[in-house]
Amino acid sequence: MILSELVGHNEDHPAYRGMEVANGMRHYGFLRSAIEAALAVERPFLSQTVIKAINYHAIACLHPYAGEYRPCPVTVGEYEPPAHYRVGTLMDDFVNQINRNWHETDEVSLAAHVLWRLNWIHPFINGNGRTARAACYFVLCLKMGGWLPGNVILPEALRQQEFRERYIQTLRHADDTAQVGAVDLGPMAQLLLDLLGRQLASIDPNGESR
Q: Is the whole model's pTM more than 0.90, yes or no?
């Protein structure tokens, strides 16, 4: 069952929306379990297996190729991601780079790189934004030693209307600077730092969300 096809690619259809919400709940449940498992076995690193699993939980039964790299070109507004046949190699390089820099790079800068680069590669048919935000949080939590609680966790805060335009601008800034030289992730890292501070401030002294 692929709901996007059954409802004529109408993502506002109640059945599609209902499955999207249900997937979202499972998505974060899996993410938290993956973080806890990686720390429990003392293997805190990013892998393509985890990234594919994050995407699968986000779009299962909504779109084809859930958890698989896209087999065709896609466009995102005016942005044209790399050709589909380059995705596998780009993802190999990306994951290797993150893990090579794991200990030398601070948690926010590393998470910002994950967030930007996954959006740039756009490796999946659908759910790339959700996957990038969750993978960013996966890295952030692993680097900080565990699941970070709060009223609104960072991946969800990035979706909120009050931060959406700033988020988009940081992505565009990173893209623009990457085209002319070294990518500048400073504005994106600052956004993540601001949202993380807001999230952690919502926790009361007993460790519960307010």
A: yes
Q: Token digits for 171?
A: 């992505």
pLDDT digits (tens, 9 = 90+) for 42-99: 999 999 999 999 999 998 888 889 999 999 999 888 889 999 999 999 999 999 999 9
Give the pLDDT score at 3.
64
- CATH for 3-143, among 3.40.390.10, 2.60.40.2470, 1.10.8.60, 1.10.3290.10? 1.10.3290.10
User: Would you list the domain boundaries of the chain?
Assistant: 3-143
